[in-house]
């Protein structure tokens, strides 16, 4: 359009329409409409992060905060072996938890989406039922299941599989993984279910028609098209579990301690808020990097199987 | 038609619960034939097509493709490929990858695969769009990708499920011509499902008209249009004026039927035996009635009044009330004499050819619950 206009004789060029005032534009009214929620989100999301970020460059001596900028906290957070261990373990646990959760949730979501029939909503409803009780109660109930005299051990013994209780079920990182996988399953099933629901069923028929077996049509069509759901499920599980505090505290024992416990200690008994802040920021950055890498790796794998 | 049909459908029934989707369907489709399954929605034509493709299995009966029974054979092992109504273009792949989808399994090697994909895209005139994604294509282009993706596998039978219904009229007509020449070029059997009678007439070598899970008639387009067997077939394929009459007797030249206003007609004998003295329905196509202008004369004439008129550009559709007839006659006139200017209520004379009438059987009762 612009080209024809520039070639037209000058006297035929239409007069420039008067530019409307910005305050009367759609953009302005749109911004005005979202501004209350925008302000709310900014003040409650960005501000705390900024404060934590600022603290991480300060230092503390008992009760007084020294506002002189220093990188000492980051040096401690990154190079102190204890924190390295804790951060490494937290990352491994959250990676394992998110992968296991997705691996367990995918078949469930797939079953509901493809074989749920008329009862899809009932199935989804049932999956959310455990979330109705408190998170704490659900973690505590795993203590009952995994404990030395717990449901699992007594069950195994009465079935004659073992003759004495297995002590290694509770108070280690395995217990943390089992508990977290159970807690987060519902949050992984839902996004995967939604992405499976969006797949046009005729695409699967087309794949079958073009020569794929059932399994191949799943691998070549369903899996790549449900990738957005897998990715969101991974992120939804991975990011919060790195910083989980309650589960390691209750079922983790000595071996299951994660970085959140250390952060809590610095803000509490340790009375070193700047170090706690530096640990938080470090965790945040490292987990973002890990999440990004995982997503990238997944995309590459799916691209390969085409 | 050759001796062994490409597709032989033998007394196929299909139930969904108590709903009978296919009722005792038997049909032979020859090799290299362009065959249309025509009928209103819910008549079972898509179920029949999906049974040939392998997505639905018949409850009873046999389907043989190229001499082999296909019952229990999954879709990936059948020598058929399908063009879906929604085209089912894989959204995560580009055009070339879509077309290559079925070839990957054959392990042809990269060069041969690329050559065949290129040739298939050339065949549907999409050679320049190989890198596009499905959502970047127009309806007609998506349709062509679906065609290329199926044809590249060199199937013995190509199944088309309402492939043109999502296109606008102009593009649909273009694609019809393209489909016809494509079928001639590749020479394989095409089975087309459609609810558009003109599409079926224009494209196919033979048509099966289906109603309520049954096949009502199988014939060439011309045969099925000129000699529809039943009232509903006649009605579904274009307009038809129905008249009731009474059979008088049988002569060497055919069956004589007495009608109101149109006198005694001699009609070719239908397949079914008809009792003398029984009620009979005869029909005449609207275009076989002709307006008479000024002092033009014809051996067989009727007078009537224009009741309604609809202008279609090249033709005008008239409804003409004739005294003594229950329903007004519909007729189609080309707009060369001024039929488009006839006022409603005008007195007209019309001519008919007694040879143009067909005897129509009553429809079998529709069987839904078994």
Automatic annotation (TrEMBL), chain A:
Membrane topology recorded in Swiss-Prot or TrEMBL: Multi-pass membrane protein
Pfam families registered for this protein in UniProt: BPD_transp_1
Keyword Transmembrane attached: yes
GO cellular component terms, semicolon-separated: plasma membrane
Superkingdom of the organism of origin: Bacteria
Membrane-spanning ranges: 38-58, 91-110, 122-140, 175-196, 217-239, 277-302
GO biological process terms, semicolon-separated: transmembrane transport
Chain ranges of the ABC transmembrane type-1 domain: 87-294
Subcellular compartments: Cell membrane
SUPFAM superfamilies given in the database record: MetI-like
Record region (Disordered): 1-23
UniProt KW keywords: Cell membrane, Membrane, Transmembrane, Transmembrane helix, Transport
PROSITE patterns assigned: ABC_TM1 (PS50928)
Family, as annotated: Belongs to the binding-protein-dependent transport system permease family. CysTW subfamily.
UniProt name for this protein: Spermidine/putrescine transport system permease protein
The organism's taxonomic lineage, starting at the top: Bacteria, Pseudomonadati, Pseudomonadota, Alphaproteobacteria, Hyphomicrobiales
From TrEMBL, chain B:
SUPFAM superfamilies, alphabetized: MOP-like, P-loop containing nucleoside triphosphate hydrolases
PROSITE patterns (alphabetical): ABC_TRANSPORTER_1, ABC_TRANSPORTER_2
GO-annotated molecular function: ATP binding; ATP hydrolysis activity; transmembrane transporter activity
InterPro entries: AAA+_ATPase (IPR003593), ABC_SmlMolc_Importer (IPR050093), ABC_transporter-like_ATP-bd (IPR003439), ABC_transporter-like_CS (IPR017871), Mo/tungstate-bd_C_term_dom (IPR008995), NA-bd_OB-fold (IPR012340), P-loop_NTPase (IPR027417), Transp-assoc_OB_typ2 (IPR013611)
Keywords: ATP-binding, Nucleotide-binding, Transport
A cellular-component GO term for this protein: ATP-binding cassette (ABC) transporter complex
All residue ranges annotated as the ABC transporter domain in the record: 7-237
GO biological-process terms attached to the record: putrescine transport
Keyword DNA repair: no
Family membership noted in the UniProt record: Belongs to the ABC transporter superfamily.
Name the record gives this protein: Spermidine/putrescine transport system ATP-binding protein
UniProt source species: Xaviernesmea oryzae
Lineage start: Bacteria, Pseudomonadati, Pseudomonadota, Alphaproteobacteria, Hyphomicrobiales
